[in-house]
Design brief:
Length: 386
């Protein structure tokens, strides 16, 4: 393992075209789960200039198409799009949702002595490290924080002339494997035509200082800061670039600091292990690190469609202690039900809690009273500190 290196992660705002799609797809999931907690949903969204298209499969309550379309408009309005090329009032919306395949349903549903199986084959990874208080890698965590604070102030009216579509990127220098110094920050943000790039720079610089701990910043004057390095960024959002659900899977997880199984989260109900098992593996990894037996932990789970138990559990504590790694694998097998049903019950996932996950990362967030971000709890750290 390298000890001294540079590492970079990026984030994108809720107004990024792909994130608009993730938000809409997760709104559809929540709409179905709110009526019927056992609903099955797989919803993809496409956006482009003044156009939104929904496609996918559902099983559950009969949701009126006009109700969904109205909720799509509310999502776009909340994000803040009132632009000529993408406006919540006049955007054209098509919904093409149809019934779930009976073949898939047969393989996944519980029947007789058969427990509910995984909704698909695949591998899912969870990761945690002690670089931040929330046990997330520092580059992705601070990249998210910059954009989240900007969005909050933009929506409240405190930050003016900044529009919804933004990206951030942070490069951190690591010494002896620990974050030492922020070397560079990149922020590209959509803005009104009434301000120039020097004004944009002055508007966003305070959010760098608010988001990154002082011990990692050697003064803004000594940090490479790039704001809209290509110049004007007036045309943005789905008018500037098309968006699709599930294209920001590294932004959603660990910013490239850990492997990714390849499956997107948004638009999928929690029977889909792409989502639920990724949450479970993060929950396990975070509790391992919270127990202080390791500085970081990577966990992989693997599933086959229609099969309830995971095919494999892999643990890496990055300490070359094979016996300790095997011990953690054994503790996980003995103390956690990692079947699709077991995960949903353990984390309380059959709730309308997904729309708020669609931007600024699914991990490193505060657990909420409504059950959202339950996978961020560290209530099982005692299992690993025995």
């Amino acid at each position: 393992m390298k000890k001294n290196y540079l590492f970079t992660s990026e984030s994108v705002s809720e107004g990024h075209p792909d994130k608009v799609c993730d938000r809409i797809s997760d709104m559809v999931v929540d709409t179905y789960l709110r009526v019927e907690p056992q609903s099955r949903v797989a919803c993809e969204t496409l956006t482009t200039t003044n156009k939104v298209v929904l496609a996918g499969e559902t099983r559950g309550p009969d949701i009126n198409k006009d109700e969904l379309i109205s909720k799509v408009r509310n999502c776009i309005k909340d994000i803040g799009y009132e632009q000529e090329g993408f406006h919540w009032k006049n955007v054209s919306i098509d919904a093409f949702l149809h019934s779930q395949s009976t073949d898939i349903a047969k393989g996944v549903d519980a029947a007789g002595n058969k427990d509910e199986g995984a909704g698909d084959q695949g591998i899912m990874f969870g990761y945690a490290c002690n670089e931040t208080d929330v046990l997330m890698p520092a580059p992705i965590y601070y990249s998210h924080k910059i954009l989240r604070l900007m969005a909050e102030d933009r929506k409240s009216g405190k930050l003016k002339n900044i529009e919804p579509d933004s990206k951030s990127q942070i490069t951190i220098e690591y010494k002896d494997g620990k974050p030492s110094l922020v070397k560079s920050v990149v922020i590209s943000t959509q803005h009104s035509a009434s301000i120039n790039q020097s004004q944009v720079r002055e508007l966003v610089k305070p959010y760098i200082e608010k988001s990154i701990p002082k011990n990692l910043l050697n003064g803004l004057d000594d940090t490479e800061i790039y704001v809209n390095p290509t110049g004007n960024f007036v045309i943005g959002g789905p008018d500037g670039d098309s968006g699709l659900t599930g294209r920001k899977i590294i932004v959603d997880t660990y910013g490239g600091a850990a492997p990714h199984g390849g499956g997107a989260f948004s638009g999928k109900d929690p029977t889909k292990v792409d989502r639920s098992a990724a949450y479970a593996s993060r929950y396990l990894a975070k509790n391992v690190v919270a127990s202080k037996i390791a500085d970081k932990c990577l966990i992989q789970l693997a599933y086959a469609i229609g099969v309830s138990k995971p095919l494999s559990i892999y643990v890496d504590l990055f300490d070359n202690d094979e016996e300790k790694n095997k011990h953690i694998e054994k503790l996980i097998s003995e103390n956690f039900d990692l079947s699709p049903r077991g995960i949903r019950e353990m984390l309380g996932l059959n709730k309308p809690i997904y729309e708020k996950t669609a931007a600024y990362g699914h991990f490193g967030r505060d657990p909420q009273l409504d059950g959202s971000f339950s996978w961020e709890n560290t209530d099982k750290k005692g299992v690993f500190s025995k």
